[in-house]
UniProtKB/TrEMBL annotation:
The keyword Hydrolase applies. Pfam families: Abhydrolase_1, Abhydrolase_4. Residues 382-473 form the Peptidase S33 tripeptidyl aminopeptidase-like C-terminal domain. Belongs to the peptidase S33 family. This is Alpha/beta hydrolase. SUPFAM superfamilies: alpha/beta-Hydrolases. It comes from Thalassotalea castellviae. One of its GO terms (molecular function) is hydrolase activity.
Length: 490
């Protein structure tokens, strides 16, 4: 069934508003044999060096080892110096719904210090990339300029579900970790280190519970603890935005350029709420006339996404100020950045969040999270539309217990993070007996990939002692700065 492009755009924009078990009968080592594994030299986008690409057949349902099989796609970025024979670092992507292999080019550069002595293993989580992807339609060109979040409907959810194959109940966090450990075993690594970012930290915590003997050390960057449901981003987003407003007023140039930023923000929201904008603009890239539709929820969704990074945050005061003057060209420029679509397999996003997180969310929790001065209940809309229609599976009650594995663990949080605030990291720090929690000032979501943090992470992976690290470079992270003019001045 074909999904119309406008509906997919609405889905994408809506998603932006949101981003001790007994082992089953077959251990990963049993299925990780040569007949199930293929490994070959290859090239990936953004990497000139030859790397390795692999496929591993695993059971779709680990309770039925002789039943349906699926292919898990992965890549190995080799160490620069292989002679040291250090255990590799496996990267657990975020989302849920990111495909790790598609991030290879950026990770190759960001983790260069780590790659000097250890390989990186990137695995497409089942339901993403080339691992039985759960996506509504591939390679769709989205009309990001004319769509609004409200266009995402129950029918879109039904149409999306109609395109999927397989047993959706098996595309869960625990089976993803069984796949990851099967890749480890197939590559003949007794132990590995893991780095998880955002949802990848949730996956990492599940890995620590299911296969602690496979892990030498763990890095959790921007924690989504098992105890905290994914999807309640109202309060955390409001906190992050309030810090942006305060930091603008602390910086002389930003305060001078935008002395009334908070009131201008409220003015724009009130205006768009009463009279959504519908105009024709020159396409930011092509120059052709393009319809632009902006309403309150679309404006908030776009601002929310900028809060994820320091670079994005630097643009927010300018976008708000210009919008208050009636100039939405800078806003259109931000919109253009999402024109190529998101590297998110939203079928897996809904499958996991609707089954592992939303069932733990009460009406009182939704009301409390909606009581904020930024985006209200906007981060809940996608779940409230999709989850009532989504096929159900449920983890066992033990899934939600805190993880207590005694594995060296470095926890990193960004002070300004809009979705996984430092308070999330404290949950895991309190229950993991061999952990340290670093809160990086003037940093936002997944700050562990920054140059300073990578050096700290590399030292940790070598020492495996989270409490004996040189963190001095973290004190040198500059305060937030903001763009104060259309010519790009900061």
């Amino acid at each position: 069934m074909k999904i119309n492009r406008k509906s997919i755009s609405a889905l994408t924009i809506t998603i932006k508003s949101v981003i001790a078990f007994g082992l089953l009968s077959v251990h990963s080592a049993v299925i990780a044999n040569e007949s199930n594994l293929s490994l070959k030299d290859c090239h990936l986008d953004g990497i000139k060096q030859q790397v390795q690409c692999g496929k591993l057949l695993v059971p779709e349902n680990y309770d039925k080892p002789n039943g349906e099989k699926i292919t898990i796609n992965f890549a190995v970025l080799p160490a620069i110096d292989k002679s040291q024979k250090k255990e590799p670092l496996m990267f657990l992507a975020g989302g849920p719904g990111q495909a790790a292999v598609s991030l290879a080019g950026g990770l190759y550069k960001a983790f260069n210090e780590v790659r000097k002595s250890r390989a990186l293993i990137l695995v497409d989580q089942r339901g993403t990339g080339e691992s039985h992807p759960l996506q509504c339609e591939e390679n769709i060109k989205q009309d990001v300029y004319s769509t609004i979040p409200e266009e995402f409907s129950a029918q879109d959810v039904k149409d999306c579900l109609a395109t999927f194959t397989g047993d959706l109940s098996q595309y869960n966090s625990e089976n993803a970790i069984r796949d990851f450990d099967a890749v480890r075993a197939a590559l003949n690594h007794e132990k590995i280190a893991i780095y998880g970012g955002s949802y990848g930290t949730r996956a990492g915590l599940v890995y620590m519970r299911l296969f602690p003997e496979s892990l030498s050390s763990v890095v959790l960057d921007s924690v989504g603890p098992i105890e905290v449901p994914i999807g309640l981003f109202g309060k955390s987003a409001a906190r992050s935005f309030s810090m942006l407003l305060a930091n603008c007023q602390k910086e002389a140039s930003c305060q001078q350029a935008y002395p009334n930023l908070a009131s201008e923000f409220n003015q724009v929201l009130a205006t768009l709420d009463e009279n959504p904008l519908s105009i024709s603009i020159p396409h930011p890239r092509l120059g052709t006339q393009t319809p632009l539709v902006v309403n309150k929820s679309k404006f908030l969704s776009t601002i929310f996404m900028q809060l994820y990074s320091i670079e994005g945050r630097s643009l927010v005061p300018l976008i708000i100020h210009q919008a208050s003057l009636g100039n939405f060209a800078p806003f259109a420029g931000l919109t253009a950045m999402s024109e190529g679509g998101m590297n998110m397999f939203v079928g897996l996003t809904f499958n996991i969040v609707c089954n592992e997180d939303m069932p733990k969310v009460t009406e009182d929790m939704i009301l409390a999270d909606s009581d904020n001065n930024f985006n209200g209940n906007l981060s809940h809309v996608a779940w409230q539309t999709a989850c009532p229609l989504w096929p159900q599976y449920r983890p066992s009650d033990d899934f939600y217990n805190p993880v207590t594995a005694d594995i060296p663990t470095l926890i990193i949080s960004g002070e300004l993070d809009p979705v996984t605030p430092p308070s999330n990291g404290e949950y895991s720090h309190k229950t993991l007996p061999n952990s340290r929690h670093i809160i990086m000032k003037n940093s936002s979501h997944t700050p562990g990939v920054s140059g300073c943090a990578i050096n700290v992470i590399n030292e940790f992976l070598n020492k495996k002692d989270p409490n004996d690290l040189d963190e001095s470079c973290l004190d040198e992270i500059p305060a937030e700065s903001f763009m104060t003019g259309l010519n790009g001045g900061i």
